[in-house]
Amino acid sequence: MSASILELQDVNKVYRPMRREPVHAVRDFSLTVNRGEIVALLGSSGCGKTSVLRMIAGFEEVSAGAIRLGGRDIHGLAPAKRGVAMAFEGYSLYPPLTLKENIAIALKSQGIGREQYEAKVRTIAQLLEIEDILGRYPSSVSAGQQQRVSLGRALIREAALHLLDEPMGQLEPQLRAVLRGRIKHFIKEQRLTAILVTHDQTEANALADRIAVMEEGRLQQFDTPEEIKARPANLFTGTFIGEPPMNTLNATARLEDNLLKFHLEEDVVLGYPEDAFATGLRDRLLELEQVTIGVRPHAVKLGEQGVSAKVYANQWLGDQSHVAMHFAGSNLISVSHEHVPVVTGATVDIAFPVAELHLFDSRNGTALSHGGDPVEVPPVT
Amino acid sequence: MQHQSVLENWLRGIALALIVLFFMFPIFWILLMSLQTNETILRSPPSMVFSPTLSNYQAIFAGRLDSNAASLDIRFLGNLWNSIILSVGSVGVALLFGVPAAYAFARYKFRGSEDIAFTLLSFRFAPPLLVLLPLTSYFQTLGIADTYFGLIWVYQLICLPLILWIVRGYFEDIPADVEHAYRIAGHGWFATFRNIALPLARPGIAAAGLLAFIFAWNNFIFALVLASADKQPVTVGALAFVTASGIQYGQIAAAVVLSIAPTLALALYAQRYLVEGLSLGAVKG
């Protein structure tokens, strides 16, 4: 038995609305999901992530490409025959049935015994904290409760694949944090395979084993949360993942006085020992007319000898300081977990350690290096 | 809770009474007329004081119209029966075809779907007489003129677009994902249509069916042209009371009372669905 359970191969989706231009929502999307894995499709709205999910479920036709689940092609099958379960973003509960009947709607057709049925519903209801409302109807409970029931209706099923479309968007923040852990535990314990669609990177980071970042219908990067954060494949992934977002600076690299110097706007220069960069990478940087330097806010070191920036806001969020600065013609944010006592208008010294630099080709955003190590094979974008 | 003064309540009551009186007066007057003889109806000035008689109803049930000049056979009960067959039949057929069609138009966008739906609606725009003349000759060639089958077919011009367009709106109001959730749980599209879509659209289907029934019941022109005496509904049959020796107002009134009774009863029975169906969406909350 192979480890992979779901394969998407060059999947495309083109919507052809009547009397309007066709929309190419998903482009050459390929993805392999392993058995027992939780994969998050992460992207901003309109990036095509829900289209991918609905093609797997069978509610949208695949314009081109193939989807295989457990070794068989499913992209031509009716939704009922695909063996997948799904939690819908809009809950989509059936109004005439109680919440309990809604959760168990798929168990009915499987013909399982009364005791097993009750036990399953009880487990799911406990997991989602909805035991006390099971007898009520969808219209009489809150949106968050409906969403939990909708999630329960998907999780109760034994399916080869569970599709979860924004499954926690309507929950209160505290409950969301609690349920995330519980749901992850449940999915792992039951050895389910799940694809989660979300625009919330906290949710993706917390739940997923691997994250597929999407933008404009294309897969930007597919890797573990740690790897995506540490080694973003391109400028989009780099700036999209991470809160607050990565600082970016446009620069031209030159070799002067045995230093590799990045010339920024307003004649600001960042200099590094030339051997901090691998030879091949250094040559590449010198060839390019412009590179984009990315530095995560927590990597901007305040008070260390380097260059200077002017503070225009300093916010203490209770557990971290966000210091906003003007630097080299753009805005820069620094995050630190101690209270930083700088005042607005002050000039501070900042430094960008070479190990924290992400360099991108300004022309197409492709990552060149992370922390001085070159990216081996630049991914195609 | 909103507080209202006694005066406001009184004024509201009076206003409602006036409105009810205004709209119900013709029906009330016809009810009174049906209990009078032609002489008391036609006296001047009209008076509400009379000794009620059931002779009009007796004449209708007996099927004999006795005027002071001659006596005439009428077949009003036959007409009533025809009305029931035609209305129930055509609404039944329209529901059978219209509801699945409405579902298809609501859920599946196929090439030309809007054009087809609009063409069906446009049947309602055409002046019936214009359609009837060529239709009559077709029906005679086909041998279905003056048959229940032919009439029910023509009545689809009234019922089908009505049901199609009202019910379509109901299906469109049901979020597609409610059906998707059922389908992904292992059910085919027909099971989904029957178990999910139909029950949710039921108030709309009931309202559309009732409206179609009323329109079919009240139709005059199709039956006048295409039906002979033994297939005529009440609307056409009432013409028989205009006799050579005068208009039998009492019997007409009794006939009108009898012919509005079924629709009135149906409307009262289905009032709940009608209000719910025409004012609220299919899925609340």
Quick overview of this protein structure:
The complex is a heterodimer of chains A (381) and B (285). Chain A is of the alpha+beta class and 381 residues long.
List keywords for this structure.
heterodimer; A: 381 residues; alpha+beta; Rossmann fold; OB fold (Dihydrolipoamide Acetyltransferase, E2P); seven-stranded antiparallel sheet; six-stranded mixed sheet; 24% helix; B: 285 residues; mainly alpha; MetI-like fold; two-stranded antiparallel sheet; 4 strands
Write the layout of secondary structure elements.
The complex is a heterodimer of chains A (381) and B (285).
Chain A: E1 4-15, E2 23-34, E3 38-42, H1 49-57, E4 64-69, E5 72-73, E6 84-87, H2 99-103, H3 105-110, H4 114-128, H5 143-155, E7 161-165, H6 173-189, E8 194-198, H7 201-207, E9 210-215, E10 218-223, H8 225-230, H9 235-240, E11 247-256, E12 259-263, E13 269-273, H10 279-287, E14 291-295, E15 301-316, E16 321-327, E17 330-336, E18 347-351, E19 358-361, E20 367-370, E21 373-374
Parallel strand pairs in A: 3-8, 3-9, 6-7, 7-8
Antiparallel strand pairs in A: 1-2, 1-4, 4-5, 9-10, 11-12, 11-14, 12-13, 14-19, 15-16, 15-18, 16-17, 19-20, 20-21
Helix pairs in contact in A: 4-5
Chain B: H1 6-34, H2 38-42, H3 55-62, E1 64-66, E2 71-73, H4 76-107, H5 113-122, H6 128-142, H7 148-173, H8 176-184, H9 189-200, H10 202-218, H11 221-226, H12 234-237, E3 242-243, E4 246-247, H13 249-269, H14 271-279
Antiparallel strand pairs in B: 1-2, 3-4
